[in-house]
Amino acid sequence: MDRTRRQPVQFLLITPCPLRAGLIEQHLRIAGAEARIRRMDPGADALACARQSGRYRGEPAPDAVLLDFTAPDAGTTGLVAKLKSRDAGTRAPLILLTTPDSEANLSLAPLELDMGRIFAPTDLACFAANLARRSRTRFCRALEVLAMLGPILVRLPAEVAEADETGAAPALRAAAGL
């Protein structure tokens, strides 16, 4: 039987932490998920990429936007509001990458995120396994439907959520006296 390689899902990952991006990509790969990740720092450039405007006009649209919501601040919640607005210019579903602590901060985000939350978060391993089992088309359609019903929350494992630019989780840095 001739098996052709499936089209990878195109993710725009908005996170200030390249290490966290690499760990997320590793989790998806281990699960057998076909995905391409483009990482960008939060800000106007990431918004332009999601909207395919400015210098990103004509580039392939992301199938979904993964937004690092592990340490939400005013900039992150503002980016959520812009990505979720009716005139956002993007059809890509927004997926918030969370931790139990950051999920408690959803009330800081735009009202529709706090009020519209009807789904429990899924963990990254389950998300990756679902991606690996489905075609790009079916997976992306499911994300689009879920995004219409409320925010999609994917909970990161502690070793991914706590990773930072130094390459170590806070507990490891404390043990090393850093």
Brief write-up:
This protein has helices at residues 18-30, 44-51, 74-84, 100-104, 111-115, 124-133, 136-149, 158-161, 170-175; strands at 9-14, 35-40, 64-68, 94-98, 122-123, 152-155. With 178 residues, it is of the alpha/beta class. The radius of gyration is 16 Å and the shape is globular.
Characterization of this structure:
This protein is α/β, with parallel strands linked by helices. It contains 9 helices and 6 strands; from the N terminus they run E-H-E-H-E-H-E-H-H-E-H-H-E-H-H. It has helices at residues 18-30, 44-51, 74-84, 100-104, 111-115, 124-133, 136-149, 158-161, 170-175; strands at residues 9-14, 35-40, 64-68, 94-98, 122-123, 152-155. Strands 2-1-3-4-6-5 form a 6-stranded parallel sheet, sandwiched between helices. Strand 3 (64-68), helix 3 (74-84) and strand 4 form a beta-alpha-beta unit. It is globular, with a radius of gyration of 16 Å. The mean pLDDT is 82.
